[in-house]
């Protein structure tokens, strides 16, 4: 069920629980700013999620409210994970869903990294 990206941050969302170690995840990378783990329901050969450690509902919340240092740290972490997985040469795709039309289901910002295969059309075709 897609979320409303304008809602306040909910501490009980599933990725907040992963960050607190309350539920397990297959961790790929962690630093001061970000945690990366494998998506539980992969949509490509490689499907990894990167989340900021700070509490941000969506890309909108993050880009409007996070300090520059946190934004920089998070973006570098996304790039690091993609490089570490060998995705630069074959190519890969980043995706961040925001709110209802974006199909966002978890109300903690996450960037999807897809790769390991040709990824096809960018979005659902019209008509
Ligand atoms: P969204 O639609 O919000 O952009 O994507 C949410 C993603 O989180 C989905 O791809 C879904 O498979 C993944 N996901 C949902 N719950 C869990 C979980 O408990 N663990 C992991 N690793 N991924 C999850």
What labels describe this entry?
binds guanosine-5'-monophosphate, 4 helices, alpha+beta, HIT family, subunit A, five-stranded antiparallel beta sheet, globular
Helix content: 25-40%
Kindly report the average pLDDT value.
Answer: 97
The CATH architecture assignment turns out to be: 2-Layer Sandwich
Beta strand count: 5
Number of helices: 4
Residue fraction in strands = 15-25%
Structural domains: how many: 1
H/E element order: HEEEHHEHE
CATH class categorisation? Alpha Beta
Radius of gyration: 14 Å
Q: Which spans of ≥5 residues are poorly predicted at pLDDT below 50?
A: none
| Dominant shape | globular
Briefly say what this structure is.
The chain has 4 helices and 5 strands. The chain has 127 residues and is an alpha+beta fold.
Description:
- There is one protein chain.
- The protein is an alpha+beta fold.
- It has a single domain (14-115), classed as HIT family, subunit A, CATH 3.30.428.10.
- 27% of the residues lie in helices and 19% in strands.
- The structure holds guanosine-5'-monophosphate.
- Residues 14, 25, 37-41, 97, 103-106 line the site of guanosine-5'-monophosphate.
